[in-house]
């Protein structure tokens, strides 16, 4: 069952053709990754899903409904939530206050929100230990955890992440990716991960697409692409 489907998506910045007619599916309950080098068009693709850039052509269907002309806040309200860049946590607020803000689109009560904060703390014990600390004083990895936790507070049906591994030490990346895997396995949350860290992303994802110069050039299961000589030569340094 496809939760999100993209057909013929084109995004231009003036004369720059950033995304040149791509098709892909996000299957409900799966982790899908979009990998590629700098400038391949990954962030632009994500922004098009979140409604932050306008498409020139194509369609984006979320749960069967065309959303590519929908306002960004309405897209979030429907459950398609992008994790903010790690450093974009609100640095002068505490960890707990950042998590509370993540729930701002929800209409359910304080008890449900408190329960969900506890849930985020159980997923990321380092955040629990630092709940009263200002977000600006967290390490890069902890800020990334907080950004994910804040997105989870919006009760997403689809979680989008733009290079959560960027600038982080390998052990922290492993820790964060394991947690994403756990959330996916335990809660069935559908995840779309955009990454330049091709190896880790392919290990994590059930389904994967490779983007080059705005076009999808390869697709398959994460395991298939890990074993593909073209992927190994271009991205894994084999
Ligand atoms: P990175 O990992 O470096 O962010 P990316 O795969 O996410 O790369 P995009 O950021 O989507 O790639 O960029 C795709 C292309 O669009 C690049 O050629 C980039 O220079 C161009 N581009 C991105 N944003 C803009 C913009 N605001 N104005 C003009 N061109 C842009």
Automatic annotation (TrEMBL):
It comes from the Bacteria. Keywords: Amino-acid transport, ATP-binding, Cell membrane, Membrane, Nucleotide-binding, Transport. The lineage of its organism: Bacteria, Pseudomonadati, Pseudomonadota, Betaproteobacteria, Burkholderiales. CDD domains: ABC_TM1139_LivF_branched. It comes from Roseateles puraquae. InterPro entries: AAA+_ATPase, ABC_transporter-like_ATP-bd, ABC_transporter-like_CS, BCAA_Transport_ATP-bd_LivF, P-loop_NTPase. One of its GO terms (molecular function) is ATP binding. GO terms for biological process: L-amino acid transport. Belongs to the ABC transporter superfamily. This is ABC transporter ATP-binding protein. Residues 4-238 form the ABC transporter domain. It holds the Pfam family ABC_tran.
């Amino acid at each position: 069952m496809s939760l999100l489907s993209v057909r013929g998506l084109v995004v231009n910045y003036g004369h720059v053709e950033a995304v040149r007619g791509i098709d892909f599916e996000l299957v409900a309950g799966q982790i899908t990754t979009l990998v590629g080098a700098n400038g391949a068009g990954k962030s632009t693709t994500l922004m098009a899903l979140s409604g932050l850039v306008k498409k020139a052509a194509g369609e984006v269907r979320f749960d069967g409904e065309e959303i590519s002309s929908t306002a960004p806040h309405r897209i979030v309200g429907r459950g398609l939530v992008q994790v903010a860049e790690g450093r974009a946590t609100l640095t002068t607020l505490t960890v707990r206050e950042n998590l509370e803000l993540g729930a701002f689109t929800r209409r359910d009560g304080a008890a449900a929100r408190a329960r969900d904060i506890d849930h985020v703390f159980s997923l990321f014990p380092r955040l629990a230990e630092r709940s009263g600390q200002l977000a600006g004083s967290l390490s890069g990895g902890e800020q990334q955890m907080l950004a994910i936790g804040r997105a989870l507070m919006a009760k997403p049906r689809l979680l989008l992440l733009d290079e959560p591994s960027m600038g982080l030490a390998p052990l922290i990346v492993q820790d964060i990716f394991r947690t994403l895997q756990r959330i996916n396995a335990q809660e069935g949350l559908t995840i779309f991960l955009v990454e330049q860290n091709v190896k880790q992303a392919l290990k994590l994802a059930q389904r994967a697409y490779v983007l080059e110069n705005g076009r999808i050039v390869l697709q398959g299961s994460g395991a298939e692409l890990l074993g593909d000589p073209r992927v190994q030569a271009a991205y894994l340094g084999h």
